[in-house]
């Protein structure tokens, strides 16, 4: 049986050309399962139509780039992204009180996990790409520090 949410989603997707609807449909349902649509709609001024339009627009703009990153694994695309990850990670470690040399070393050690997560994690297409990368970078920097502290405690 099809839920009311699925009916609403399918009704909105019918407003798009069949190719676009087919491309974004799986993204929409993954985002729904992750609670991203509910979070967006929690603001009473937002609509499902707006949400799906944002996903469609971002998909049209970013899908080729993400394909190069996640499928082709293009060095041409990864190099500038890794520079950005290093810059954001470095700034994050500095804000946490680490000295410049320490921050540089910590970024070198933690950036690999950030890149791996970007490589494997599906982009939700409902958020700015740079914001998504920044959140992943900060989350992996925190995880790296927590692992480092745990290893110190355990040794």
Keywords:
155 residues; mainly alpha; 0% strand; elongated
What would you say this structure looks like, in words?
The protein has 155 residues and is mainly alpha-helical. The protein is built from seven helices and no strands. Helix 2 (18-33) packs across helix 4, helix 5 packs across helix 6 (100-120) and helix 6 (100-120) crosses helix 7. It is elongated, with a radius of gyration of 19 Å. The N and C termini lie far apart (55 Å).
N-to-C SSE series?
HHHHHHH
| Content of β-strand | under 5%
The rough form would be described as elongated
The main sheet comes to: none
Number of strands: 0
Stretches with pLDDT under 50, minimum 5 residues: none
Distance between the termini: 55 Å
Tally of individual helices: 7
Helix % is over 70%
The SS-based structural class is mainly alpha
| Overall number of domains | 2
**What is the average of the pLDDT values?**
93
Computed Rg:
19 Å
Give a summary of the structure in a few sentences.
The protein is mainly alpha-helical and 155 residues long. 81% of the residues lie in helices and 0% in strands.
Write the layout of secondary structure elements.
Blueprint: H1 4-13, H2 18-33, H3 36-41, H4 48-72, H5 75-95, H6 100-120, H7 129-154
Helix pairs in contact: 1-2, 2-4, 5-6, 5-7, 6-7
């Amino acid at each position: 049986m099809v839920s009311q949410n699925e009916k609403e989603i399918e009704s909105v997707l019918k407003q798009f050309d069949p190719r676009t609807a087919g491309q974004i449909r799986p993204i929409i349902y993954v985002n729904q399962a992750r609670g991203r649509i509910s979070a967006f709609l929690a603001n009473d001024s937002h609509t499902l139509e707006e949400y799906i339009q944002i996903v469609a627009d971002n998909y049209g703009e970013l899908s080729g780039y993400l394909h190069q990153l996640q499928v082709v694994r293009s060095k041409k695309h990864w190099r500038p992204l890794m520079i950005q990850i290093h810059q954001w990670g470095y700034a994050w470690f500095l804000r946490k009180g680490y000295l410049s040399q320490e921050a540089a070393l910590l970024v070198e050690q933690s950036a690999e996990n950030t890149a791996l997560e970007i490589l494997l994690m599906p982009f939700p297409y409902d958020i700015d790409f740079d914001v998504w990368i920044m959140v992943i970078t900060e989350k992996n920097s925190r995880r790296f520090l927590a692992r480092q502290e745990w290893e110190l405690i355990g040794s």
